């Protein structure tokens, strides 16, 4: 009597790869992908930056990100050095439009 999985997936000595269920060969080796390391905080930064770019107020983004201090929310904003959002450029664009 043998021990182990009943579907015949036990690897033998010298085998490579992972056995397919049912013992019908091995799975092909996955391609070597160069995926950059990511962490959950990258998603938070993207969320904050995208919301601010969309015109959502800093206070609303702060509440959505659950930050106690608006300075924390500002630090998360990757595009904070974007001159298109600088108040002086917004004012200049408003005055140039003639409205």
UniProtKB/TrEMBL annotation:
Stretches assigned to the Tyr recombinase domain: 36-81
Keyword terms, alphabetized: DNA recombination
Pfam families reported in the protein's UniProt record: Phage_integrase
Domain of life (superkingdom): Bacteria
Biased composition (Low complexity): 8-19
UniProt region (Disordered), positions on chain: 1-36
Name of the protein: Site-specific integrase
Origin species: Actinoplanes oblitus
């Amino acid at each position: 009597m043998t021990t182990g999985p009943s579907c015949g997936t036990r690897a033998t000595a010298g085998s490579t790869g992972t056995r397919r269920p049912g013992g019908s060969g091995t799975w092909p080796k996955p391609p070597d992908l160069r995926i950059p390391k990511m962490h959950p905080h990258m998603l938070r930064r993207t969320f904050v930056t995208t919301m601010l770019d969309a015109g959502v107020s800093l206070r609303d983004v702060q509440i959505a990100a659950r930050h106690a201090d608006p300075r924390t929310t500002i630090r998360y904003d990757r595009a904070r050095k974007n001159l298109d959002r600088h108040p002086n450029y917004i004012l200049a664009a408003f005055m140039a439009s003639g409205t």
